Amino acid sequence: MITMKKNVVLICGIFISFSLFSQTIIKEFKIEKRYLNFPVEMKQERQMVKFVSKQDTVAFSVIRVSEKEPDYWVFKDVSAFMGQKLKLVFQKQAKGIDKIYQSEKFAGEDSLYKEKNRPQFHFTSRRGWNNDPNGLVYFNGEYHLFYQHNPYEIQWENMHWGHAVSKDLLHWEELNDVLYPDGLGAMFSGSAVIDKDNSAGWGKNAMVAVYTAAGKEQTQCLAYSTDNGRTFTKYTGNPVLGGTRDPKVFWHEPSRSWVMALYDKNAIAIYNSKDLKKWEFKSKIKGFYECPELFELAVDGDQNRKKWVLTAASGTYMTGSFDGSVFKPEYGKYYYSWGSQYAAQTYNNTPDGRRIQIGWGRIDQPGMPFNQMMLFPCELTLRTTPEGIRLFCEPVSEIETLHNKKYSLENVTSVEANKSLKNIDEMMFHVKMDIELDKGVGFEILYRGNPIISYDGNFNRFNGAPYICDNPGSFRFKIEFLIDKTSMEAFIGNGKLFISEGLKKEKSAEGLRISGDVKIHSFELSGMKSTWQ
Ligand code: FRU
Which domains does the chain have, with CATH numbers? Predict the structure, then answer.
């Protein structure tokens, strides 16, 4: 996925060269319906499409407009232009241009969330590509999930900020994209804060998005919303800062200052600001790449014993202290996540102080008009282990409300367990088990014929990730895992290691199977309800 993202010509550059292009094709619509539907064919080259209303370009993107049969359809909500003329200016002819149509529904809306490979209790975008979660913030009863979105294709391009909201972190409603590429570039990752004291001057409790505009250079910009995140106005003084990308901003109460952790020329830079507009450089930490995160957590829930955690896109982390301007590492670098997760972000402003994370699951969604997914929301905690303080990651407790049918087993061998496990026909479920190696050096849990969790005691690894058992010599593990249509997320040792992977094509009809000489002290499986019904 990452390599796919690199083959990109910056939108800004295309935009400039497009104006030099003479042979444009123009298609005009008088907007009478909510959506414009576009046929996409992946074999076609991307071409720049400008949306022009009353002489002004209101949006532009590159789209693979079909020549033959479309592979899928994408849409743009044009309700803002109702009753007006909207001109679509294409760089070159394509037969699909004549197939673009207006409708109150977007193509395929009737089967939305019922598509064969649509994850049923994870967020995926209705159409197009998603990568990083952005601007995670709780406000007025809603968890906002903004995200890197290409609304026009199932591959990375045209970065917009997509938007969804949820009251419970489980049921999401996708709304319109809020940030569109502009003359400063594509809308790359960033964060959002609630400006409680009106420090930026856009009103008390304005929601302020701090994002990277990726044009010729990558710069940091602001946009604010006073309507619960439904629409944003870009700050006329943009950009507010240079640097590289992915600003994570939060309020630091002891120093009464905004803090920005920014991926800045191969390090994480810390900046401070009083008004979100003027930023002052404070310090740098080496050894981390994009999408930094910095937050404080109580150790073992003790509010008098707190540590700061610095992490970034890969999920490696250090713990240490932070005074508002300088992070002093004490331990690390460790990792808590392994596999498909990348560029996870945590929520600002949670109502109960929980540190809730959502990660990008780099998981393909075969044959679907959307691609990639968000992983299940997790709570992060710091706990003392025999090796020291470690970051733990577990599904948010709200998950229990999605449980339906339950199966359980107690004190059985794998041979005994498999007699019933093979009949499990659920497609979405949540397992909690307590398993102990009896003989040998490993075991595997298989789902529909493919190993999903493999413990190799010889090399001390779960699915390839080094793992130290908390009770040395016991080789007894608490394992929790979630299966959705296309994904597996496992939480080993109460979340000391979080593994996420895409599911492989099924090899057998057998539900679950455990191979290896193990004792299963307990096994509990709960079916999961779809969050889209
Ligand atoms: C991480 C990342 C960010 C960037 C964004 C672009 O996946 O590369 O650094 O802002 O994706 O989509």
Answer: 10-110 (2.60.120), 128-395 (2.115.10.20), 398-528 (2.60.120.560)
